[in-house]
């Protein structure tokens, strides 16, 4: 039962058609679609408002590494015509403002319980519905359970001893305070040099008295070369949105970024070098739009990697620091390529220094700072930019029990598995948005969110139109999809680095690339096929062989 404020009463049992978890871009769109379909549903969100990853990750310098033309909803022409992005690569505050703009426009907040967490979800076989319990005491009983929990939701905290004894301040980039943090004159230590660390370094370096960057694995980062958007440019975009969106939906990345089919070694060395120079000057991910085989051809990849390493030496004045900043031992683009604004330049500032944790590993946190094997760093504040339990963290953060008492943790013990990254054998009517065996972080996540939610809503409509109560993929369909995912993963260099993509950053997590690497357009076709073939890869409730469709 919703109260006057819109929130759900504690200790009540609420019967619904659907529950949506998450008020990021996936959950917001799901709420909009379910409302349009006339379903009774409720959204549950741990944060205080909409925005998902952009609600939590408010650290200084946070920015999206996809251009804003791509990184926005396409379902409403009114929204895309009204909203104006100020920069090519949007700042976190602008993306959050955009999420709020959409929430206001569609009046989405009234459908969500904020500051509420799901603590368990179990499928009631007898009644064909999900029983979803929350930390507020409210219990929802719903036919459809839609998890739009995001691939980067559960922050990873390093397990060094001593954090509790530190007398300064500890900040997690993924749980950044809502008020600005002033680092002026303070001695700051930053742990982690992935996309997040690389974005925050130049901003904190401007303020801090001293900034020590604790780097374990150096990342490849390319200049973002962000710029303001002129009114003329934006008018042009608005006039052409229909074709821009069409191109995005047909592209491998779900965005309009240039892609190339040109093999790297099809050109002579001098020409390759000149194109790499152009890509560097152009900024962003121009390299991937210049050559088509950088994620498959190791030799080509290494030549680009060496080109980027040489650029680090051109920027960073101290040769020893430059050398330590150079990533080695894994292919460029196998980790998420970072886009930075002044990262390497920051190391030329007298107040910034690099602590190489391969050479001198962190041992513990002390009351006054960080102790490595060889040194003690006195610090007033520690920033953790240490990543996430990606892809599956939020989905496994509470107990999920499917048909016949199946436990999701058991099902995924050897790694996440599902059909299309959307549905799972043994878990009827549980739908994942941007789930782990789809393209997830490898595609434009807003395009993917919309496509996944549309697919789920079509499936729900199919069930409602045909008097079916529940659906789940057949075990052999799930097996066949996972074979496709694995075969594609074997062919890409993306699986060849120790990253959150392959679960290598979380102790005890099964390793392996479980994201679909065949590109968004192919993925979209597979999803469309699964629908237009009459959902023959699914069984529908009651799960008896004679009720199989197709
Ligand atoms: P990340 O890529 O997983 O990087 C985490 C960093 O923390 C790594 O350098 C890692 O080193 C280090 N680290 C972890 N545990 C450590 C420990 N115990 N001691 C020392 N160092 C430790 O996480 P992220 O930077 O938050 O990025 C995650 C993803 O978020 C990105 O890949 C991207 O998809 C997304 N993101 C996007 C943007 C954007 O749009 N621009 C911005 C930020 C994030 P090791 O590699 O050695 O473990």
Structure explained in plain terms:
It is a single chain. The chain is of the alpha/beta class. 30% of the residues lie in helices and 17% in strands. It contains 15 helices and 20 strands. It has helices spanning 25-36, 53-56, 77-82, 92-106, 195-207, 231-239, 241-250, 269-282, 298-315, 319-325, 343-346, 408-411, 445-465, 475-491, 520-532, and strands at residues 13-21, 41-44, 112-113, 118-124, 129-134, 139-147, 169-172, 187-191, 210-215, 221-223, 338-340, 352-356, 362-366, 369-372, 376-378, 381-384, 399-401, 430-432, 471-473, 538-540. Strands 1, 2, 3, 4, 5, 6, 17 and 18 form an 8-stranded mixed sheet that branches. A 5-stranded parallel sheet has the order 7-16-8-9-12. A hairpin with a 4-residue loop joins strand 4 and strand 5 (129-134). Helix 9 runs antiparallel to helix 10 (319-325) and helix 13 packs parallel to helix 15. The protein starts with 12 loop residues before the first strand and ends in a 10-residue tail after the last strand. Mean pLDDT is 94; it is low at 543-550. Bound molecules: NADP nicotinamide-adenine-dinucleotide phosphate.
Poorly predicted sequence stretches spanning 5 or more consecutive residues? 543-550
Number of helices: 15
Cα shape: globular
**Bound compounds, please?**
NADP nicotinamide-adenine-dinucleotide phosphate
Rg from Cα? 24 Å
Could you report the average pLDDT, rounded to the nearest whole number?
A: 94
Q: How many strand elements?
A: 20
Task: Quickly give the structural class.
Answer: alpha/beta
What percentage of residues falls in helices of 4 or more residues?
Answer: 25-40%
Give the termini separation: 39 Å
Percent of residues in beta strands: 15-25%
Query: Could you give a short account of the major beta sheet?
Result: 8 strands, mixed
């Amino acid at each position: 039962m919703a109260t006057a404020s819109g929130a759900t009463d504690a200790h009540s049992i609420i019967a619904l058609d659907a529950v949506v978890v998450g008020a990021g871009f996936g959950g917001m769109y799901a709420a909009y679609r379910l409302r349009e379909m006339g379903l009774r549903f409720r959204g549950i969100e741990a944060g205080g408002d909409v925005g998902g990853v952009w609600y939590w990750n408010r650290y200084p310098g946070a920015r999206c590494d996809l251009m804003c033309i791509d990184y926005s909803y396409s379902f409403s022409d009114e929204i895309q015509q009204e909203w104006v992005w100020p920069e090519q690569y949007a700042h976190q505050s602008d993306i959050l403002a955009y999420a709020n703009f959409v929430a206001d426009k569609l009046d989405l907040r009234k459908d969500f319980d904020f500051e509420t967490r799901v603590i368990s979800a179990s499928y009631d076989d007898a009644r064909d519905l999900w029983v979803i319990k929350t930390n507020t005491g409210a219990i929802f009983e719903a036919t459809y359970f839609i998890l739009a929990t995001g691939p980067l939701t559960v922050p990873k905290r390093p397990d060094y001893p001593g954090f509790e004894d530190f007398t300064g301040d500890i900040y997690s980039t993924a749980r950044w305070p809502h008020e600005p943090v002033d680092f002026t004159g303070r001695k700051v230590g930053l742990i982690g040099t992935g996309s997040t660390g690389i974005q925050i370094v130049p901003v904190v370096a401007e303020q801090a008295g001293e900034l020590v960057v604790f780097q374990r694995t150096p990342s490849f980062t390319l200049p973002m070369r962000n710029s303001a958007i002129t009114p003329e440019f934006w008018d042009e975009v608005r006039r052409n949105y229909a074709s821009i969106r069409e191109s995005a939906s047909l592209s491998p990345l779900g965005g309009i970024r240039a892609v190339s089919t040109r093999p790297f070694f099809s050109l002579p060395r001098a020409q390759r070098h000149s194109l790499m120079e152009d890509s560097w000057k152009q900024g962003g991910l121009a390299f991937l739009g210049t050559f088509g085989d950088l994620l498959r051809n190791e030799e080509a990849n290494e030549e680009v990697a060496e080109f980027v390493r040489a650029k680090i030496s051109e920027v960073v004045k101290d040769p020893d620091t430059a050398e330590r900043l150079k990533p080695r031992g894994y292919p460029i683009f196998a980790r998420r390529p970072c886009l930075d604004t002044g990262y390497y330049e920051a190391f030329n500032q007298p107040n910034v220094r690099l602590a190489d944790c391969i050479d001198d590993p962190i041992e513990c946190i002390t009351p006054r700072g960080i102790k490595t094997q060889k040194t003690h760093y006195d610090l007033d504040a520690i920033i953790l930019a240490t990543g996430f339990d990606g892809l599956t963290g939020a989905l496994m953060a509470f107990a999920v029990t499917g048909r016949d008492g199946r436990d999701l943790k058991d099902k995924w013990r050897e790694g996440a598995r599902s059909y299309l990254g959307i549905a799972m054998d043994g878990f009827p009517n549980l739908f994942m948005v941007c789930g782990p065996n789809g393209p997830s972080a490898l595609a434009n996540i807003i395009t993917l969110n919309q496509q996944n939610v549309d697919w789920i809503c079509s499936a729900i409509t199919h069930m409602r139109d045909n008097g079916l109560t529940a659906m789940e993929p057949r075990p052999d369909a799930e097996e066949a999809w996972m074979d496709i995912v694995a075969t594609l993963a074997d062919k890409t260099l993306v699986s060849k680095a120790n990253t959150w993509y392959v679960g290598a950053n979380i102790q005890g997590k099964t390793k392996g690339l479980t994201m679909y690497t065949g590109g968004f357009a192919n993925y979209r076709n597979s999803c469309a096929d699964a629908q237009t073939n009459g959902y023959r890869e699914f069984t529908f409730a009651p799960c008896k062989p004679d009720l199989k469709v197709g």
